Amino acid sequence: MTARRASNRDRILQAAAEMLYRSGYNGVSVDDIEAASGVSKSNFYYHFPSKEDLGLAVLSARRDVLEQLMDATLRDKERSPATRLAAFFAAILDHQESELDRHGCPFGNLVAEMTEHSERIRCFLSGLFADLTREIAEVIRLGQVTGDFRDDVAAEDLASLALQTLQGMQLIIKCDRDPRPARTSGSVLVELMRPSRRDEKPAYS
Questions:
Q1: In this predicted model, what pLDDT tens digit does every residue of 127-174 receive, in sequence order?
Q2: 93: which of 2, 41, 66, 127 is 20 to 30 A away, CA to CA?
Q3: d(CA 59, CA 41)
Q4: Pairwise CA distance, residues 142 & 101, whole Å
């Protein structure tokens, strides 16, 4: 019984993740998710008391994926701070290219759609972005000590700029279905964070 329940829950989550990503939270009904997952209404509500609870579960699963990307990039202490940040940007874009026809960042999509309608989802997303900003700031702060990054701007401000740039890049990819300009923007941002060296030619030129 436990295995079947877990399987049904996973089927609901998988169907919901794909449908919410493609059509948006408000563009998908519980009936749509039930039909796509092949579970009954009673089984759906056994696992998820509401559509909002399902949305939060989908976001939590997506956060787990983000944590794995951060483990492999931002938290990789074998790399220099600048390399860690550049690798994180590249990993996010690689992941978006491979996922669901490039429908944008699932977190950013729900910010635009749901923050006025669900306080629980808004708080989840606000906390996620705050945690991510802190992670990026820690890498930048270390880079300011090692000389990888300029130290005349607060690490928190540079981290906020990096996150906003990343979200903007993902929005442009969603619109244009072309990740190449976004990859250039990520490289440019990392270079702009470096200390000024007037005699060096920018690496992104």
A1: 999 999 999 999 999 999 999 999 999 999 999 999 988 888 777 777
A2: 127
A3: 21
A4: 36
